[in-house]
Write a structure and sequence with these properties.
Layout: E1 4-13, H1 14-21, E2 27-31, E3 37-41, E4 53-62, E5 68-75
Length: 76
């Protein structure tokens, strides 16, 4: 099964991330580089959080059935 990917930028300060961490916000909605509106589960952010928050260029990978395969930080 081939993987697909979408790139987007995030800028979420650590204090704002607490709402995601506590489950108060369940989904993240972003605008991809190609203009598409993307929604994915907030728990996917756990792998990319730092002490400062979540900043940079990211790639979301998913399969043909739109199952999330991973979220990766690929740049600043």
């Amino acid at each position: 099964m081939a993987a697909h990917s979408i790139r987007f930028r995030l800028a979420i300060p650590a204090d704002d991330y607490l709402a995601y961490y506590k489950g108060q916000i369940r989904d993240v909605v972003v605008r991809a580089e190609d203009g598409r509106r993307i929604q994915f589960p907030a728990n996917a952010l756990q792998s990319v959080i730092s002490h400062q928050g979540i900043y940079g260029l990211f790639e979301l990978r998913f399969d043909a059935n739109h199952k999330l395969l991973g979220l990766y930080r690929i740049g600043d």
